Amino acid sequence: MNTIRRSSFMLVICLVCAVAGPSYQSPVRSGQERRRWADLPEQRTAIQLSNAPDPQELKKDAEELAQLSQTIPAEVEGMSRGLVSNHLNDRLKRIEKLSKKLRDAVTRSNR
Predict the structure, then answer these.
(1) Of the chain's two ends, which shows fewer C-beta atoms within 10 Å, N or C?
(2) Separation in Å, CA 76 to CA 52, 81, 93, 97, 101
(3) Can you tell me the distance from the alpha carbon of 77 to that of 74, in angstroms, rounded to the nearest whole number?
(4) In the chain, where are the structural domains located?
(5) How far apart are CA 63 and CA 69, in angstroms?
């Protein structure tokens, strides 16, 4: 009688585990995050350093962005007087591209 109780108790536990097991879902992560968790700590730092942006290139881009942005107010004021610069649209696109590049670099360095 005692063995029947034990075996039925074990059967109930196994059934509960079998039913509850598939309902658990781990947090979904991107493939790169999963790989980062699987890597050893010394490998993680090497990966992070290789993805780090070049500081000299970022400085050059930031200086170009500052220089371009300084020319915009004068050109916009010229537009109010009827003088339209041919290069204003190109400069604005370049500013947008540089700012996006710098923003992405900051985002990557914060990870």
Answers:
(1) N
(2) 37, 9, 15, 20, 25
(3) 5
(4) 28-110
(5) 10
* CB contact at 8 A, 36 and 51: no
pLDDT above 60: residue 31: no
- Residue 63 CA to residue 85 CA, distance in Å, equals 22
Q: For the chain, give the mean pLDDT.
A: 76
Q: How far apart are CA 63 and CA 98, in angstroms?
A: 10
Task: Supply the Cα-derived Rg of the chain in whole angstroms.
Answer: 30
Q: Say how far apart CA 18 and CA 54 lie, in whole Å.
A: 52
Is the pTM here over 0.85, yes or no?
no
Q: Mean pLDDT, to the nearest integer, of 23-37?
A: 56
Q: pLDDT tens-digit profile of 89-105?
A: 999 999 999 999 999 99
Output DSSP code: residue 82.
Answer: T
